[in-house]
Design brief:
With about 240 residues, the protein is of the alpha+beta class. The chain is about 20% helix and about 25% strand.
Length: about 240
């Protein structure tokens, strides 16, 4: 992969992102246990789905970490399904790319309502938690811009307009180990939890960005699966 992004000087974001379930602590997955992992492929990298399946299958046979030599940390891919349609893309033996769902974020409909509950499924690694309601939207937009600049059309993402306030937050703090070729840091902090925002105004672009965030997340460290969340509208927009 190239050292610099197509725009700017930072290294480009990863085109294939694994979004693991986050439990907040180490856990032991016993033999015959199951683990659900989300997979996000950006831009034209969707065409490499067969290569991803093959690569992950070979990795499963080899195992993860040094204890793989003790026949530990090996796995098989039982199935892969499209998240929204639940259609089977891989059944453990056969690949059916017809069921592989591709989403054009430009076609997403904006979210209705003015009170939103944000459930952070994986750690948010911004400088403070929670971000204020307007910054939350900006973090979604910034991540989208980086993805579009590298794997999309490089077209301009429109500005948004929004006003709101934080209603409530239930934070959970985590120290997270990391290994990155971009940094010497071995630990970074993150937060999960539930945040409630009340917006007094959201224009069309802001509502669209909320919907985009449910797929792409927001903030930094996307390559580590960080900053992914669910958004629930708690009140219909009038």
């Amino acid at each position: 992969m190239q050292e610099k992004a197509k725009k700017g000087y930072a290294k480009p974001p990863k085109p294939i992102i694994l979004i693991p379930p986050f439990f907040g602590k180490e856990m032991v997955l016993h033999q015959e246990g199951f683990l659900d992992v989300e997979l996000l492929l950006l831009g034209d990298f969707g065409r490499y789905m067969p290569h991803v399946i093959l690569g992950m299958s070979l990795l499963g046979k080899r195992g993860l970490g040094s204890i793989r030599y003790d026949n530990i940390n090996r796995f098989i891919i039982e199935s892969i399904e499209s998240k929204d349609s639940n259609a089977i893309v891989f059944d453990g033996e056969n690949i059916n790319l017809i069921n592989f769902q591709r989403i054009n974020v430009k076609e997403l409909k904006g979210m209705e309502g003015n009170i939103f509950e944000i459930k952070f499924r994986t750690p948010f690694t911004g400088p403070e938690f929670p971000p204020d309601p307007v910054l939350f939207l900006e973090l979604i937009r910034n991540r989208l811009i980086r993805f579009i600049n590298e794997y999309g059309t490089q077209e301009r993402v429109p500005e948004f307009a929004a006003e709101g306030e934080l209603e409530s937050v239930t934070p959970h703090f985590h120290y997270l180990p990391r290994h990155s070729s971009r940094s010497d840091k071995t630990l970074f902090k993150g937060y999960t939890g539930v945040v409630s925002y009340r917006y007094s105004f959201l224009n069309t672009t802001a509502r669209w960005l909320l919907r985009v965030g449910t797929i792409l997340g927001g903030g930094s460290d996307a390559a580590f699966g960080c900053g992914f969340f669910d958004i629930i509208s708690k009140e219909e927009h009038v």
